[in-house]
Design brief:
single chain, mainly alpha, Helix Hairpins, 2 strands
Length: 304
């Protein structure tokens, strides 16, 4: 059967507009829907749109503002919204929001939609809230993360490493806070730019532990101190640098890296165990064949 615009085929269910015959579907509409679903569910296509949008945002941030850039940004945002709709129809509401990467994509898409008001509100340049919303477009770059090679394995390894090193990280943070409070009490009046409050001291101690301009801190503390105290203070900060910076940070890195590699080591061990079992099975088969061959040779000798 056919109408002026569409052709219909029997499917046993109602499809298409209300005037379509019951049990018939519109072939043209079905083909369009199928094509859209294939396009938006193909990760490579969406990665291309994401990278194009990131490039546009980067160029706009560099001062290359024109109507073409704005139009591309709007079109990319519309494509992301259509992608959400298509995936909701394909996976269902629960199925879509159950996947962690879909949660990231959907949240970023919804958060960045208000930024489009910048293109339609004439006084947007004078409205701070819209300018702030426009900055949210940068979140779209996070959508590219799901397309990194082996990102799921990397993420699972990261979570495992974080769980295994959580205790040491908490202990390291506690030590940092204790040292910061001690330094705030000792040097708060001598170097207020670094140790005025415990919060300032925490940041300073973290800067010291990361070996970032650490020598400026003791130099600001010693000031016009007695030469003896100058050497004591510098020795104290050198000890903090060695203990918290060199040794502490090295331990954190080693624990975290070992935990990240543990998952890969388990896979290698599992494969090696499989190879070992296969070799043992082949060895047993060879021994059995050797015994059979020896028995056959013995039988031939007896017959002679």
């Amino acid at each position: 059967m056919a109408s002026f615009f569409c052709t219909y085929s029997y499917s046993g269910q109602r499809h298409g507009p209300p005037n379509a015959p019951t049990g018939w579907r519109c072939n043209g509409c079905f083909e369009i829907q199928d094509t859209m679903q294939k396009f938006f569910l193909r990760e490579r296509n969406m990665l291309s749109v994401v990278m194009l949008n990131v490039l546009v945002i980067f160029l706009q941030g560099c001062g290359l503002e024109n109507s073409v850039m704005g139009l591309i940004d709007i079109l990319c945002s519309v494509i992301f919204v259509i992608e959400m709709v298509v995936k909701h129809r394909a996976y269902g509401l629960r199925g879509y929001w159950r996947d962690g990467w879909n949660i990231l994509d959907g949240t970023v898409t919804l958060l960045t939609l208000p930024a489009l008001l910048v293109y339609f509100v004439p006084t947007a340049d004078s409205m701070r809230i819209l300018i702030a919303l426009r900055a949210l477009r940068v979140l779209k770059t996070f959508r590219a993360a799901r397309h990194f090679p082996n990102i799921k394995e990397i993420w699972s390894g990261f979570k495992l490493a974080l769980r295994q090193s959580a205790g040491f990280l908490v202990g390291y943070f506690v030590v940092t806070v204790v040292v910061a409070m001690l330094n705030s009490a000792l040097f708060g009046t001598v170097a207020p730019q670094y140790f005025a409050t415990p919060l300032d001291a925490i940041y300073t101690v973290f800067q010291l532990f990361t070996v970032e301009g650490w020598y400026d801190i003791p130099n600001a503390v010693v000031g016009n101190m007695d030469p003896v105290w100058v050497h004591i203070v510098r020795t104290y900060f050198c000890a903090l640098l060695i203990g918290g910076g060199i040794i502490g940070m090295s331990l954190i890195n080693s624990i975290f890296v070992d935990a990240l590699a543990a998952d890969n080591n388990d896979d290698v061990k599992y494969k090696l165990d499989g190879i070992k079992a296969e070799l043992e099975a082949n060895q047993r088969q060879l021994e059995e064949r050797l015994v059979e061959l020896q028995q056959a040779i013995s039988g031939l000798k007896k017959d002679r």
